[in-house]
Amino acid sequence: MKLLQLINYLKKQTHNSFFIFGRYGFVHATPQNTLEQNAPTNRPTYRVDSSYSWLGTTQRIQHQGGFRLSTICCLCAGVLFGEKALDGPTIAMINTHF
């Protein structure tokens, strides 16, 4: 999966839970609220359960709510492509789509 494919996939996930598994870990996201409940921004937030390689040596586990899709996209890119792929241009591209 390429970055633009990931972005397009995540843009379609407005009411569903989803799971991304990659070489560096996984991300499972569950909607916390709906677009109607979050009317001012029209963006749902998600609870994330993830496990990923951090700095190539340790495994970080995340169980937290309140994530927007832009942040989840960065997490997913990290588990798919590795932490080093999350450079300024990659994050800028993600932010232009969310």
Question: Key terms for this structure?
Answer:
single chain, 98 residues, alpha+beta, globular
> Any idea what the radius of gyration is?
13 Å
Counted by DSSP, the helix tally is 3
Mean pLDDT equals 86
Give the strand content.
25-35%
- Describe the largest sheet: 4 strands, antiparallel
In total, the number of strands is 4
Global shape: globular
Helix content: 25-40%
Give a written overview of the molecule.
This protein has 98 residues and is an alpha+beta fold. 33% of the residues lie in helices and 32% in strands. It is built from 3 helices and 4 strands. The protein has helices at residues 3-11, 69-81, 88-97, and strands spanning 18-22, 25-31, 46-54, 58-67. It has a 4-stranded antiparallel beta sheet, covered by helices on one side. β3 (46-54) and β4 form a beta hairpin. α1 packs antiparallel against α2 (69-81). The longest helix is centred in the last third of the chain and has 13 residues, at 69-81. The two termini are 19 Å apart. The mean pLDDT is 86.
